[in-house]
Design a protein that fits this description.
It contains seven helices and nine strands, in the order βββαβαβαβααβαβαβ. With about 190 residues, it is α/β, with parallel strands linked by helices.
């Protein structure tokens, strides 16, 4: 397995990560078997989300039962816009994932208007910054499907990683990926 540094976060992650969205198509024992196999293959990065139905819960249970929690860099995300909503979402993620810390917590695909709410006073970013200061969250990121959101995220110092579609068909963010690297932000390819 190849490993890379995730921007300036200091996190050393496997080039290939484990995406948690398909977990909702199998069962909890299957989730545990997949994560054990991923670990054996050298994968150390898991991405899930509050919106992926049972994904957080089953991943958390599998990591606890297998004793592998500390072998993975755990990333999750939610759609909270306000500080109050983020407080609730983060608490639920911690409970579901059966952990006291999450290495990367991301804003889940906001549009530009939602992103401005997140960044404004009383927005969700305030809660994540508090959680980061307390060691509950290691790093803050964002996922996006629109180049305008990617561009805006590049200007926000507190956003340390950006996840964006990048594959043979979807190459609309190619120039932004180079800018992401130049800014010291970690880029995570999706799809």
């Amino acid at each position: 397995m190849q490993y890379v540094m995730l921007g300036s976060t200091g996190l050393r992650i496997s080039r290939l990560g484990f995406g948690g969205i398909p977990i909702q198509r199998i069962d909890q024992p299957g989730t545990r078997a997949l994560l054990e196999a991923a670990h054996k293959a050298g994968i150390n990065y898991i991405d899930t989300a509050r919106g992926y139905t049972v994904s957080e819960e089953w991943i958390g249970q599998a990591l606890e039962e297998s004793g592998l929690r500390d072998q993975f860099v755990l990333a999750t995300k939610c759609r909270a816009l306000t500080k109050e909503d983020m407080e609730q979402e983060l608490a639920t993620s911690l409970k579901n994932l059966r952990t006291d810390h999450i290495e990367l917590y991301q804003f889940h695909n906001p549009d530009l208007r939602a992103l401005e709410t997140i960044l404004a006073p009383g927005g969700a970013l305030e809660k994540l910054l508090e959680a980061k200061a307390q060691g509950v969250v290691g790093h803050i990121g964002i996922t996006a499907h629109l180049t305008a959101v990617f561009e805006r995220a590049l200007t926000v110092p507190d956003i340390e990683t950006i996840m964006f579609p990048c594959n043979i068909v979807e190459q609309q963010g190619t120039d932004l990926i180079a800018r992401c690297a130049a800014a010291g932000k970690g880029f995570i390819a999706m799809k």
